[in-house]
Specification:
CATH class: Alpha Beta
CATH topology: Rossmann fold
Order of helices and strands: EEHHEHHEEHEHEHHHEHHHHH
CATH superfamily: P-loop containing nucleotide triphosphate hydrolases
Protein name: Sulfotransferase
Strand order of the largest sheet: 6-3-7-8
Structural class: alpha/beta
Number of helices: 14
Number of domains: 1
Strand content: 5-15%
Radius of gyration: 18 Å
Largest sheet: 4 strands, parallel
Family: Belongs to the sulfotransferase 1 family.
CATH architecture: 3-Layer(aba) Sandwich
GO molecular function: aryl sulfotransferase activity
Keywords: Cytoplasm, Transferase
Catalytic activity: 4-ethylphenol + 3'-phosphoadenylyl sulfate = 4-ethylphenyl sulfate + adenosine 3',5'-bisphosphate + H(+)
């Protein structure tokens, strides 16, 4: 593959004011016209909010807890990333077209950019939200290891970019609020990363109810075990170690880094924390959405 370095560390390009990878923008008509199917299940998150975690849980639910079936392929092939298109390397839209129903579809798009067929077909959707301070820390390390992103710069510089929405998939604040509002009108199960860490069984029961699935308790316990951070971190079909080093350099930072709540305390200075909180309060004012920064 001669062009493997051509797409690395390139600047983001805006679509309707949302910064995305240049290759997605070039292929935007494919994304926009994506044809969902009524039995598709959409898994939507802002990056670094538990996407792979909930994807693995749902794939386990769909396969009645059969862990061997869930090792049939890497998670990014079992749950294709719809809008992720890089010429000659990946095309989520085409991958999904080839998949049999029922499909699991991953997206990081804010509500206003989601292909309209999902709303038209009234697809079920799961949204997972995570507190902003843990997201920005995780995103910083992800930017460093996943080279399709622009260079993150210093932690201080990246924190500024995050606060102003100048990162891939745009403003965290707009993203979580947009999906929160949309849940009033569509079949959206809105989950919180912190709740999943605190009581995975309770949150998996919510998923089962939403998906109208009934599994015996022993299967649920098996799903909890196999979707735990430590087990997934060791699972090549879930931990992204099958991605080539030139794309994701796990020696810089593993894809599955810590998987905890409250890690932001190890990264934020007092001054950064105070500035962030003041800005956060302004941006989230008026929203009924409430987050926990630790559990």
């Amino acid at each position: 593959m001669d062009n493997k370095l051509d797409y690395m560390r390139r600047e983001l390009v805006d679509i309707q004011g949302v910064p995305l990878f240049w290759s997605m923008v070039e292929a935007w008509s494919q994304v926009e016209s994506f044809e969902s199917r009524p039995d598709d299940l959409l898994i939507s998150t802002y990056p670094k909010s538990g996407t792979t975690w909930v994807s693995e849980i749902v794939d386990l639910i769909y396969n009645n807890g059969d862990t061997e079936k869930c090792k049939r392929d890497a998670i990014y092939n079992r749950v294709p990333f719809m809008e992720f298109i890089v010429p000659g390397i990946s095309n989520g839209v085409e991958d999904l077209k080839r998949m049999q129903s029922p499909r699991l579809v991953k997206t990081h798009l804010p509500v206003q950019l989601l292909p309209s067929s999902f709303w038209k077909n009234k697809c079920k959707m799961i949204y997972v939200a995570r507190n902003a301070k843990d997201v920005v820390v995780s995103y910083y390390y992800f930017y460093k290891m996943a080279k399709i992103h622009p260079d993150p710069g210093t932690w201080e510089e990246f924190l500024d970019k995050f606060m102003t929405g100048k990162v891939a998939f745009g403003s965290w604040y707009d993203h979580v609020k947009g999906w929160w509002e949309k849940r009033k009108d569509y079949r959206i199960l809105y989950l919180f990363y912190e709740d999943m860490k605190e009581d995975p069984k309770r949150e998996i029961q919510k998923l089962l109810k939403f998906l109208e699935k009934d599994l015996p308790e022993e299967t649920v316990n098996k799903i909890i075990y196999h979707s735990s951070f430590d087990v997934m971190k060791q699972n090549p079909s879930a931990n992204y170690t099958t991605v080539p080093d030139f794309d994701m350099d796990h020696s810089v930072s593993p894809f599955m880094r810590k998987g905890i709540s409250g890690d932001w305390k190890n990264k934020f200075t007092v001054a950064q924390y105070e500035r962030f909180e003041e800005d956060y309060e302004k941006k989230m004012r008026g929203s009924t959405l409430k987050f926990r920064s630790e559990i």
